From TrEMBL, chain A:
One Pfam family from the record: DUF934
Biological classification of the source: Bacteria, Pseudomonadati, Pseudomonadota, Betaproteobacteria, Burkholderiales
Species of provenance: Caballeronia jiangsuensis
InterPro entries associated with the record: UCP030820 (IPR008318)
Name of this chain's protein: DUF934 domain-containing protein
From TrEMBL, chain B:
Signal peptide coordinates: none
Entries under Pfam families matching the protein: NIR_SIR (PF01077), NIR_SIR_ferr (PF03460)
Protein name in the entry: Nitrite/sulfite reductase
InterPro entries on file: NIR_SIR_4Fe-4S, NiRdtase/SiRdtase_haem-b_fer, Nit/Sulf_reduc_fer-like_dom_sf, NO2/SO3_Rdtase_4Fe4S_dom, NO2/SO3_Rdtase_4Fe4S_sf
The Nitrite/sulphite reductase 4Fe-4S domain, residue ranges: 142-282, 435-574
Keyword Heme part of the UniProt annotation: yes
Keyword terms of this UniProt record: 4Fe-4S, Heme, Iron, Iron-sulfur, Metal-binding, Oxidoreductase
SUPFAM superfamilies named in the record: Nitrite and sulphite reductase 4Fe-4S domain-like, Nitrite/Sulfite reductase N-terminal domain-like
Domain Nitrite/Sulfite reductase ferredoxin-like span(s) in chain numbering: 53-80, 371-421
Source species of the chain: Caballeronia jiangsuensis
Top-level division of the source organism's lineage: Bacteria
Native organism taxonomy: Bacteria, Pseudomonadati, Pseudomonadota, Betaproteobacteria, Burkholderiales
Length: 125, 585
């Protein structure tokens, strides 16, 4: 279950070029429930980390996936650092826009680090 | 003790490898200072006044002798500052009047962890590898995440226990460890759990306090409270549930933490703890948690329901050790005609649920050592004592001592002699000199004033055991700043270091309680007027205690006298002990 990355990692220009999706953007103090009735019309939801230590978007991701059953692309934007990518994936993010100047190989290593976790990942819950 | 599975062991080793990778990226500039900081904090690495500080997690306070020996080795080989770092530190603290700045030792904390003050950061990854050899780590001992779970040091051995809290504490340890959703909460989050009728874990002062109880049908569950905390706004936890079935505890805690993660303040770190959210929201917070809990159970399928099989599996690790114990209960211990031994029996030895055994406290409160400090050699001796007398197990206590939980009543005299030789046999448990103190301004970057010289001065003044016995049980708690690591709020007498125009001053509070039966319902103490200078503090303490001895009714304890007569007489006596004309606000 672990050891391989399922999450898409994008550079900022790839994210900017990614315009085909029907996208909803949630600020990190928005209630995910506000999207409840529109979810079937949304391909992608962008959640935001104003600073990497602000962890509200992790709970939003959980609620969107588990509570509201969103199956589209869930994207982490803002202050996204490689040491948080694994936990983003584990709470249901499927893509992340990496801050500039970060070595993707350093990021890749983090996904293979732990053989497993104590909590089920969102996908296995 | 909990037996680590192969999964647990490999997890801790992976964590150590992850930290080494992060350290190396920080050292070669690939990881910024700002990005590295929370990562090292979540592994227990702070950068303090003069050097880094490592906090090692001791889940629910339990240490094996093998772990104690590794801690001893770390103290001996790694708690070893660069000579220039130590010279600068000694000079700076010397100017303030500090005479001792110990190195090569460990420090027991109020949340039953172990700290080191001098390990250079470039050795940090080596230390984490060494800790991992005995399944130890610093995971979530700092940072804005769910911290190490603390417990009652008599868990599983106390006669007054409803149920052993350790299997639940272990299940919580696992569930909280690297929880992906809750690694960046608004602020730190502390859980304490007790299974006894006496609260030895200060549960009401925690973000979540749990007490195992039985309902009218005899079923086991938790009394849950939340929103307690110290700091600049001391708050006693609010009851959330009088009875929550034990199977649901993780689902319910998830609800508490998720609502906090979403709505806790992040704009001001002094208002970011859950206690502030709960004060602001009142019943609405409780309603939100109930609704979130309902959703977790009904919609999400109660994913963290603890099965009986899982509880049994974890509980199996906590079966009592096989001891060669005479089957007979021992009611009275023969004092061997030795009054000092008799006194030690009275103060440092407690009843065990097995009447042939006893629980023994080794006192780490004595002259020339700071409260809770243990040198490398002393840690090795504790390991030896644990092996010889306590099935290889020791526990760190909330009051910064060490408990041996499995001592045969028939071996108490031999243990006393060995403890005495090692300097751990001060018969002062729960007396004035068994004080709690944080490392304070000699080590901590946050402190406004030094704690340890105050602790030392009071210890020096009260060396007469007869006098200490006459004063009786007093909780003296000393913090070097309002962050309250020395728990001054909950002391019967609290001492708080404050900074005024670059000088150290000390506020005295009276009447606080940690929530133990002897201290009464948990509550913060009340300040008794303007602060005092460091030199005045021992006189003020003496004045307060003299007032108590003059005022008390027969057999009345200090805290009871304070409650009966109020703070005025103490305040007047304290004020009269001022020598300095300069009075701070």
């Amino acid at each position: 279950m672990n050891g391989t990355r399922r999450m898409r990692i994008l550079a900022l220009e790839d994210h900017d070029a990614d315009t085909r999706d029907r996208v909803a953007i949630l600020s990190n103090d928005d209630d995910p429930q506000s999207l409840k009735d529109r979810l079937k019309d949304i391909d992608r939801i962008d959640l935001h980390f104003p600073h990497f230590t602000d962890g509200r978007a992790y709970s939003q991701a959980y609620l969107l996936r588990k509570r509201l059953g969103f199956e589209g692309d869930l994207r982490a934007t803002g202050d996204v650092l490689i040491d948080q990518l694994v936990q983003m994936e584990r709470t249901g993010f499927s893509s992340a826009v990496l801050r500039e100047g970060v070595d993707i190989a350093d990021a890749e290593r983090q996904f293979a680090r732990f053989a497993g976790y104590y909590q089920g990942d969102l996908a296995s819950l | 003790m909990y037996q680590y599975t192969e999964f647990d062991k490999s997890f801790v080793k992976s964590r150590a490898a992850q930290f080494r990778d992060q350290l190396e990226r920080w050292q070669d500039g690939r990881l910024s200072e700002d990005a590295f900081r929370p990562l090292r904090l979540q592994n227990g690495w702070y950068v303090q006044r003069h050097a880094p500080m490592l906090r090692v997690a001791v889940p629910y306070g339990e240490l094996s002798s093998a772990q104690l020996r590794v801690l001893a080795r770390i103290a001996r080989e790694y708690d070893d500052p660069d000579p220039e770092v130590y010279r600068v530190a000694s000079e700076a603290q010397g100017k303030l009047g500090t005479e001792r700045l110990p190195t090569h030792c460990a420090h027991f904390t109020t949340r039953t962890n172990v700290q080191f003050n001098w390990i250079p950061l470039d050795k940090s990854a080596d230390v984490m590898d060494l800790l991992a050899t005995v399944n130890m780590h610093g995971i979530q001992t700092s940072g804005n995440c769910i911290r190490n779970i603390s417990c009652d040091e008599r868990a599983g051995v106390a006669p007054d226990e409803v149920a052993d809290p350790r299997p639940f504490a272990e299940i919580m340890r696992q569930w909280t460890t690297l929880h992906p959703e809750f690694a960046f909460l608004p602020r730190k989050f502390k859980i304490a759990i007790t299974g006894a009728s006496e609260d030895r874990a200060a549960t009401a002062w925690h973000d979540v306090g749990l007490q195992l109880v039985r309902n009218e049908s005899g079923e086991l569950g938790f009394r849950v409270s939340a929103g307690g905390g110290m700091g600049r706004t001391p708050v006693i936890a609010t009851p959330m549930r009088e009875f929550l079935p034990w199977r649901h505890i993780m689902n319910y805690i998830e609800a508490i933490v998720r609502v906090y993660n979403r709505y806790g303040r992040r704009d001001n770190k002094y208002k970011a703890r859950i206690k502030i959210l709960m004060k602001a929201e009142g019943q609405r917070y409780i309603d939100d948690v109930d609704e979130e809990f309902r959703q977790i159970v009904e919609h999400d399928g109660a994913p963290h329901l603890i099965s009986q099989a899982e509880l049994d599996r974890v509980s199996a690790s906590f079966v009592p050790p096989a001891l060669n114990v005479p089957p007979a209960a021992v009611d009275d211990i023969d004092p061997h005609g030795h009054p000092l031994f008799a006194r030690w029996l009275q103060r440092n030895v407690a009843r065990h649920k097995d009447p042939a055994l006893r629980i023994v406290t080794l006192s780490f409160k004595r002259l020339l050592q700071s409260p809770g400090d243990a040198s490398a050699d002393q840690l090795d001796i504790v390991a030896n004592l644990a092996d010889r007398f306590s099935a290889g197990e020791a526990r760190v206590t909330h009051t910064q001592n060490v408990v041996l939980p499995w001592v045969r009543a028939s071996e108490l005299f031999a243990l006393w002699q060995a403890a005495r030789e090692a300097g751990f046999a001060s018969a002062n448990v729960q007396l004035l000199t068994d004080m709690i103190a944080c490392p304070g301004g000699d080590f901590c970057a946050l402190a406004n004033a030094r704690s340890l010289p105050i602790a030392q001065a009071i210890t020096e003044r009260y060396q007469d055991l007869d006098e200490l016995d006459d004063i009786g049980e007093v909780d003296l708690h000393i913090s070097g700043c309002i962050n309250s690591c020395g728990h001054h709020h909950s002391g019967h007498i609290g001492v708080l270091g404050v900074d005024k125009d670059g000088r150290e001053w000390y506020q005295i509070t009276l009447g606080g309680s940690d929530g133990s039966a002897a201290s009464g319902a948990a509550q913060p103490g009340k300040v008794i007027g303007p602060s005092f200078s460091a030199a005045e503090v021992p006189d003020v303490i003496e004045a307060i205690l003299s007032t108590y001895r003059d005022t008390r009714e027969r057999n009345e304890r200090f805290i009871d006298t304070v409650r009966r007569v109020g703070s005025e007489p103490f305040k007047a006596a304290a004020h009269a002990a001022r020598t300095n004309d300069e009075v701070t606000a």
